């Protein structure tokens, strides 16, 4: 895994455009997710996520991959989820997903995915101290919208409500 991380870091530093950095960022986020979920724990994933987030924040607003970069920032924040002050990673992820959602066509699959990720993040925040009732209501609205666009006999419907 260390050699994969090194190769992705090299690819990231040699990328000349935002579009060229996408595969390396995706790979680093994937590795961080594997580390977090596979026994490596948050401690091993954190330095990779810190690096990804530092890169994304430095590259903020770079076309043409702005939507992709927002999605990556949200995913990295959700994986890292450090409760740093004054704004937590979860709050940052929600903000990125809201911005991403606004960029996407209402009936697109990408918008549905952003809605699902945003609803999930908001429900996670509802379970934390100091949450806002508006989060619960917005998550409910997003989930209802996802159910409305899914056929009653579609197996994906079960994924929405689980």
Descriptive notes:
Helix 2 packs parallel to helix 4 (66-80), helix 4 packs antiparallel against helix 5 and helix 5 packs antiparallel against helix 6 (109-126). The chain has two domains: 1-84, no CATH class; 104-162. With 162 residues, the protein is an all-alpha fold. The protein has helices at 2-14, 18-37, 41-58, 66-80, 89-103, 109-126, 133-148, 156-161. The chain is globular. Helices cover 75% and strands 0% of the residues.
Short key terms for the protein model shown above:
162 residues; 2 domains; 8 helices; mainly alpha
- Please, what is the average pLDDT? 84
Question: What does the oligomeric state look like here?
Answer: single chain
Strand content: under 5%
Q: Give the total of domains.
A: 2
> Can you count the helices?
8
Q: What is the radius of gyration computed over CA atoms, rounded to a whole number of angstroms?
A: 17 Å
**Helix percentage range:** over 70%
Distance between the termini: 32 Å
Report the principal-axis shape. globular
How many DSSP-defined strands? Answer: 0
**How would a crystallographer describe the biggest sheet?**
none
Helix-strand topology string? HHHHHHHH
Low-confidence stretches: none
Structural class assignment: mainly alpha
């Amino acid at each position: 895994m260390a050699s994969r991380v090194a190769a992705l870091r090299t690819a990231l530093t040699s990328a000349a455009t935002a579009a060229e950095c996408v595969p390396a960022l995706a790979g680093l986020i994937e590795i961080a997710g594997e580390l977090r979920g596979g026994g490596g724990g948050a401690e091993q994933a954190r330095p990779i996520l810190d690096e990804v987030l530092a890169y994304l924040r430095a590259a903020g607003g770079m076309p043409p991959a702005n939507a992709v970069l927002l999605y990556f920032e949200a995913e990295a924040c959700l994986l890292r989820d450090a409760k740093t002050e004054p704004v937590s990673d979860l709050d940052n992820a929600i903000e990125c997903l809201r911005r991403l959602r606004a960029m996407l066509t209402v009936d697109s699959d990408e918008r549905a995915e952003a809605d699902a990720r945003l609803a999930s993040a908001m429900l996670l925040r509802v379970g934390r101290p100091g949450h806002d009732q508006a989060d619960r209501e917005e998550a409910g609205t997003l989930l209802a919208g996802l159910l409305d666009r899914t056929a009653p006999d579609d197996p994906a419907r079960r994924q929405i409500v689980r």
